[in-house]
Design brief:
The chain has about 150 residues and is α+β, with helices and mostly antiparallel strands. It has three domains: about 1-50; about 50-95; about 110-145, no CATH class. The protein has three helices and four strands, in the order H-E-E-E-E-H-H. A hairpin with a 4-residue loop joins strand 3 and strand 4 (about 85-90).
């Protein structure tokens, strides 16, 4: 009789484990979908907004100066912990917009190739390449060679 009860308790434990696993996966899926939905809504409202922060300068720990664009006008505001104050309005000619640096996106495959080459070099020569800039230069050189 005790053998039958022991087998039943083992099967109950397995069913409980499967049930908890499915419940956990269900919660993960619901969380993922909710996050994507809210993120999409927020991204839509940010791109369609008339308010844009052009530049931010940190004065002290909780105090910033920002250049913002509202519609077609530019303003300088002071943002503190509890207050926001208008400092002045700027003319469009007074603002120098800097282009964001366009870093070349290196694919994960290129990074792996670079590491593989470094490992082969270490195996062949016994030298270690510890400078990350060397690996970037190697990948940039390979990118240039691939484009030519």
């Amino acid at each position: 009789m005790s053998i039958i009860l022991a087998k039943m308790s083992d099967s109950n434990n397995v069913f409980q484990l499967i049930g908890v696993t499915f419940l956990f996966l269900f919660v993960l899926v619901i969380t993922y979908v909710t996050t994507k939905l809210i993120g999409g809504i927020k991204a839509g409202t940010l791109t369609e907004s008339n308010f844009k922060v052009i530049d931010t300068y940190k004065v002290t720990q909780n105090k910033y100066m920002q250049i913002i664009k509202i519609g077609s006008k530019y303003f300088v505001i002071a943002v503190c912990k509890d207050t926001i104050q208008l400092i002045t309005e700027l003319q469009e000619e007074d603002i120098v917009l800097k282009e964001k640096s366009s870093k070349t996106n290196i694919s994960f495959q290129e990074i792996l190739k670079t590491i593989k080459k470094q490992n082969e070099k270490v195996e062949n020569t016994g030298d270690k390449v510890t400078d990350l800039s060397m690996s970037r230069e190697t990948s940039e050189t390979s990118d240039e060679n691939n484009h030519q």
